[in-house]
Amino acid sequence: MSRKKTVSSRRNFIKNTLKGTAGAAMLANIPSIVPASVLGKYAPSNRINVGAIGTGRIARDWDIPGVIKQDSARILAVCDLDSNRVQSAKKLINDYYIKKGQSGYNSTKTYEHYEELLDNKDLDAVIIATPDHWHVLPAIHAVRAGKHVYMEKPASLCISEGRILSDEVLKSGRILQVGSQQRSMPQFRKACELVRNGRIGKLHTIYVGLPIDKPEESTVEKEMPVPPNLNYEKWLGATPYVPYTEKLVHPQKDFSRPGWLRCEQFGAGMITGWGAHHFDIANWGMGTENTGPVEISGTSDWPAKEALWDVHGNYKTETLFANGVKVLASNSYTNGVKFVGSEGWIFVARGNYSVTASDPDSKNKNAKALDASDPKILTSVIGENEIHLIDSKDHHANWLNSIITGAPHIAPIEAGHRACSVCLLNHSAMKLNRKLYWDPVTERFKNDDEANAMLVRSQRWPYQIEKGFNVRTMI
Description:
There is one protein chain. By secondary structure, the protein is an alpha/beta fold. The two termini are 43 Å apart. The N terminus and C terminus are likely disordered.
């Protein structure tokens, strides 16, 4: 069968499959090349073709290895605004396929601008592992281009942009998996199933323990020449222009922890960095994945105004949901999530697991990954007619399987947006140092113009999300 006929058959198969499950929105957005793996085994020509947008620490240590090992996928292209990093990623991928004896592999394509990568009709899906301030716009453009997306958390840096992204994904019919990989770790699923099925009685309190970065390690940095391998102008994206210094962006000699993680211009600190994981688990255990809290309060230490690394320090917050459950968060708690009910408690954490070698100290690497007030709680069997959550043994494989089969995936964008919203609401309360009242339906603060002003971020031309500019010809 010719390549043209094969693609046509794949398109017809997908369309017939989706008629009963995804509706007209998906049918209208079938990409020009549909994963051939729906028709059989994963021959080189029948795999999901993936491009990687962002090739730094998380991409190299987690997302590229997580996708490249899957028989159902093949990474064909990489993109980064740092040419050294994109060439390093190309070598990483090429070496892997050569070692595996991948037949028919013709070398990884490289791009500076993600918009050009999205124009590649051979790609079915993309990984977005960029700095946090560059999550939303590429993801919107990707689903508009008919690509499925695996996007690192947090979903956004302001709630209004997260809402736009979630709506765009729903409208497109594409699959967007948020990199909330704790959902694919068995202890987190088990904990949430036990809580939702009443094994600790009526849930009333959740404790969320998160690490913090140490912004006081950096105060003032002098301006440095921009490295010739870095498109710094575009790297800044929609955020305000500031002079370049290496600690503002990422290390030039290695892939250690980048400075942008500790700059509020590009992120909100660990309240979103790890908060997007743990608040997501709190939502999963409560069953509040598609809503939000109603009251938020909090306090935090902040570095000096002149500090380059200016994210929050020690903090404590309290979040109240309409179901009466309080979520207390602080770096003083043990890293993890503790569900407390009328008849006991369950604690769940990552244990000794880490994504990268430069993860912040979790403070409980020798603690149990799953614990309870009574060991019998953990051996309780979930009955056939009780709540069963999606069982994903591999986060990247779950995403790819959902693309292939249409089965529900474990970390959809709306859940990611709502988890991120809790993080950002906590951040707002920490900034304003007072109680805030939230409407999770309208996603607005009640009678609070100052707080509502924090629902948006400045958008430097030409990177405005609402405009959707294609900027590759402008840089």
